[in-house]
Amino acid sequence: METTPRQFKDLGLSAPVLESLEKAGFHHPTPIQEASIPVAMADNDLIGIAQTGTGKTLAFVLPLIEKLQGIDGTRAVILCPTREIALQTHAAIEKVGAPLNVNSVAIIGGKPISGQTNSLKKHPSILVATPGRLCDHMERRTVNMASISFLVMDEADHMLDLGFLPQIRHILRALPKDRQTLMFSATMPGEITRLAEQYLNNPQRVQIAPPGTAAVGIEHALYMMEPQYKREAILKVLKEEKESTLVFTRTRLDAEWLSRLLAKENHSVEAIHSDRSQSERISVLEGFKNDQFQILVATDIMARGIDVKGIAHVVNFDIPQTAEDYVHRSGRTARMNATGRASTLATWVESHFVEQIEKLLGFQLPRKHVEGIPVFEETPAIPVTPFGRAGTRGKRVRLR
Ligand code: AMP
Q1: Is the CB of 127 under 6 A from ligand 1?
Q2: Which of 28, 80, 134, 175 would give a disulfide with 86, using CB separation of 3.0 to 4.6 Å?
Q3: Ligand 1 center to residue 239 CA distance, Å?
Q4: Which CATH architecture has domain 8-207?
Q5: Cβ(56) to ligand 1 under 6 A?
Q6: What is the homologous superfamily of the domain 218-397 according to CATH?
Q7: CATH topology of 8-207 equal to that of 218-397?
Q8: Which residue has a Cα nearest atom 10 of ligand 1?
Q9: Does the CB atom of residue 328 touch ligand 1 within 6 A?
Q10: pTM for this structure?
Q11: Are the C-beta atoms of residues 198 and 168 closer than 8 Å to each other?
């Protein structure tokens, strides 16, 4: 865990919160916490540009806990892209806030709405919600948005990727204008900037590392090949792997197919994707955290919610389609001070994704090849032509 030498008390937090933090095992702030907490404590709106794994959850949770101590009623909403992230945020609030009577309830899809309605009647301090389910409650009038003074949008770019913009706008319109808004995002695409311009009030921007910088301590490897060799390649790449490994596929079907294939090869493996029920996903994530199996095959949608320490190897069975996703996926290994590996299989038609990733990272991904699989030799990229992007051409050379 990369923390700063600063003390939490230097950031304007009170004695009870400091005590609760100590008890929870947090001794020094991470850089994003050091930069964000004083801004939020001074009642400013904030745009925090940070990836998961940087400690951004506590960066917004601590100021909320601080401000909501001794205050009755539901005062804060935290919007999260996925149920998993919502549950992790809820757990963080419970850990530090519960001893101070600041509690939260997770308002997420896949759980009975009636149980949530009952929890809402108890007026928890903070609602940690996925946008769709919060809108359902708004429609049923089981939440009162008029009392909300704090809004956090966590992983705003991810929420937009998932198509939540209409729900987010609906929620923003229902909230009192007189509120504090904190927005966290790993990237700042134009839509996020526009959302911030429209709904945040003179926000301060906090950025701890240039966007797209991959965590240090990651050993990258790129395997270029023709598509028909991917199956054989993934089996070989994983054959000797004994440590905890996260494999990404582009589609749910591939996640299922690959997990079955790996199971047949005697790997202990599970799959997580949006077709699985919420309880299944939770138990798979718990199992992975507790080392009950070695390989987890996941789709992108699930990537950002996976906060598991000790993942030694992230393998992209399919190359991510944006450079930011590459950073997010590989950021699941080498969390904080640890080291890890990120391996990617790519086919020549995907060369332009490789270029984008390398441009964002600022270095070339080291090329490796799998024994017995024809080496794909790349030739320099052909620039964009008036007829579209030509991509990188290459030729295949058979190994003896
Ligand atoms: P996040 O980026 O919020 O998902 O946090 C990543 C991990 O870092 C979580 O497991 C947190 O419990 C942990 N963490 C966050 N802040 C600190 C801190 N100040 N000291 C030690 N661990 C932390």
Answers
A1: no
A2: 80
A3: 32
A4: 3-Layer(aba) Sandwich (3.40)
A5: yes
A6: P-loop containing nucleotide triphosphate hydrolases (3.40.50.300)
A7: yes
A8: 307
A9: no
A10: 0.64
A11: no
